[in-house]
Structures are given as structure tokens and as C-alpha cells.
Write a structure and sequence with these properties.
The protein is of the alpha+beta class and 195 residues long. The protein is 29% helix and 26% strand. The chain has an 8-stranded mixed sheet with strand order 2-1-3-4-5-6-8-7. Helix 4 packs across helix 5. The longest helix has 14 residues. The protein is globular, with a radius of gyration of 17 Å.
Length: 195
């Protein structure tokens, strides 16, 4: 336990320069860790690598990880709170998406460019069945807690309705496939509202 505390302290010291003048819009590193872990499955949380935001909007590592999971705090530039955790094989895909967003690329073009880059072998494709957990909801800074709903995204590059047996029609409370036949094909599972 002491080793973990020392490790966390050293990690926070290493990134403290990015928060020397913390913006009111950017949460401090401790709060960003809590935000990121709000979406984490319990058995992955302790060893997850944590990414957050510096005052200039760039994504920075707040805590090194010891397992195959990465958790990202909510982007302070967005109105709605949304944190996510995902298998490490998805990081090149998400990092490229953040890079394209910073360049001002539209959402549709971000997907198209990444799919083309994966098909060309320029961008690593996620491991088959790599999973992302996304918590959408509200964040309470005073209690450092999130409320909302976790949805699951399971990446199945190239997956189709025929290869998975899934519908392309959204199924509240059940699985369906989105972006079928593309390198970014994924199974969506969204819990029923209010459930």
C-alpha cells in the first residue's frame, strides 16, 4: 500500500508542471483520476493507466498503469461529462482521433480517415473483441463522484451482421453492431434508460 502511495505521489509530481496554473475548467489530477475511474470495471481500476487533460487541452498521463487498461478523464472542453476506460490495444485508434480533433477534422472525417489508415496498415487495428466502457452523465466536484450510465462498446474489426448474428438496429438493453464491415466495427450495448 505504501509503495502504491509513493508511486502515485511521484506520478502526480511528474505531471504537476502541466497544472502549475490550474484552469477552473480543468480538474486537478486527483479529481481527474476519480473521473477516469468512474467508468472502470472494478477488477481493472487499480492497475489502469490514467490519462487526463492539461490546461492547454492536451492529453497527458496522470498515472502509469500495470495492466492492459487505460482510463480517460472527462474532457473539460465538452459540456457533458463522459469518461471512458478501454483495452490498451484501442489507444492508437483513440489517440489518432484526438489528434484529428485537435486539427479541426469533422467527426465523419475522423472515422473515415482512421478506417482508411487501418486498412492501409498505417494505424494499428484494435485487438479483436477489445472493450471500452463509457460513463455518460454528471460529475460532482464536491463529492468527486459521477452519476450516469455505463455503456459497453466491444470492437470487432470487420464484423458484420452476418459474422456476428447481430442487428444493425439499435437495441435498448441489448447488443447491436455499429459501423459493420469497417475496421471500426463495434458491438454496442446500452442499458435500458432508467434501469
Amino acid at each position: 500500500m505504501l509503495t502504491r502511495r509513493v508511486s502515485l505521489a511521484l506520478t502526480f509530481l511528474a505531471v504537476s508542471a502541466a497544472w502549475s496554473c490550474v484552469s477552473p475548467q480543468v480538474a486537478n489530477p486527483d479529481e481527474q483520476v476519480a473521473q477516469a475511474l468512474a467508468a472502470a470495471p472494478e477488477d481493472k481500476a487499480d492497475g489502469a493507466r490514467i490519462l487526463g487533460y492539461a490546461t492547454d487541452g492536451s492529453v497527458v498521463e496522470i498515472r502509469a498503469g500495470s495492466n492492459d487498461f487505460i482510463c480517460l478523464a472527462s474532457n473539460p472542453a465538452n459540456e457533458r461529462f463522459s469518461s471512458s476506460c478501454y483495452h490498451g490495444s484501442l489507444e492508437p485508434y483513440f489517440a489518432r482521433g484526438r489528434e484529428l480533433t485537435a486539427e479541426g477534422v469533422s467527426t465523419a472525417d475522423r472515422y473515415r480517415i482512421r478506417f482508411e489508415e487501418m486498412e492501409a496498415g498505417i494505424l494499428d487495428m484494435p485487438v479483436m473483441s477489445a472493450t471500452q466502457y463509457v460513463l455518460d452523465g454528471e460529475w460532482d466536484s464536491e463529492t468527486a463522484t459521477a452519476t450516469g450510465m455505463v455503456r459497453w462498446v466491444i470492437y470487432v474489426p470487420g464484423g458484420t451482421p452476418e459474422s456476428t448474428g447481430l442487428s444493425v438496429v439499435p437495441q435498448e438493453g441489448g447488443p447491436w453492431i455499429m459501423d459493420p464491415g469497417t475496421p471500426g466495427a463495434h458491438i454496442m450495448i446500452v442499458p435500458p434508460r432508467g434501469g
